[in-house]
Amino acid sequence: MNLDLTAIPRNVRLFALPILFSTVGLIGMLICAGHGDRNTPLAAMMTGVLQIAFWPALALALLGVSWLARNIWLLWRWQNGEVIGGCTTCGGVMRHEDGRWSQYSRCNICGSKRQGWH
Ligand SMILES: [Zn+2]
Fold first, then answer.
1. How far is the CA of 117 from the centre of ligand 1 (A)?
2. Where are the domains of the chain?
3. For the segment 20-32, what is each residue's pLDDT rounded down to a tens digit?
4. Which of 59, 82, 108, 112 lies most in the core, judged by the most C-beta atoms within 10 Å?
């Protein structure tokens, strides 16, 4: 088994937030779908709230899954040399950020920084 330890920060950078969004959305959907008894007025009210809250949870889960699929696709294309981004180190796609002193770009693949937006 070929385990690439240097890819761990890249995988965290690319996949941590999408997986978090997907997981939170799915857990929210499970909580909202599994509403229990409606015997008390509070439980009946919470049932309505949970039925409404199901849709934002579904949207969050769909956003996370599609973001995850996009980043997997981006990484796969970068590994096959099909992405020519602004990174001078690895050719990866940069994301634009505002720093304390100026605007800069950070590579999504290798994490290197470069002044200005590229
Ligand atoms: Zn790079």
1. 14
2. 1-82, 84-118
3. 999 999 999 998 8
4. 108
Could you give the 3-state DSSP secondary structure of residue 113? strand
In angstroms, what is the span from residue 87 Cα to ligand 1's centroid? 5
Nearest residue to 102 (alpha-carbon basis) of 114, 86, 89: 114
- Report residue 103's pLDDT band, with 50, 70 and 90 as the boundaries: very high
Q: Identify the DSSP state of 81.
A: T
Measure 59 CA to ligand 1 centroid, in angstroms. 31
- Measured CA distances, 51 to 35, 42, 54, 56 (Å): 9, 14, 5, 10
pTM above 0.70, yes or no: yes
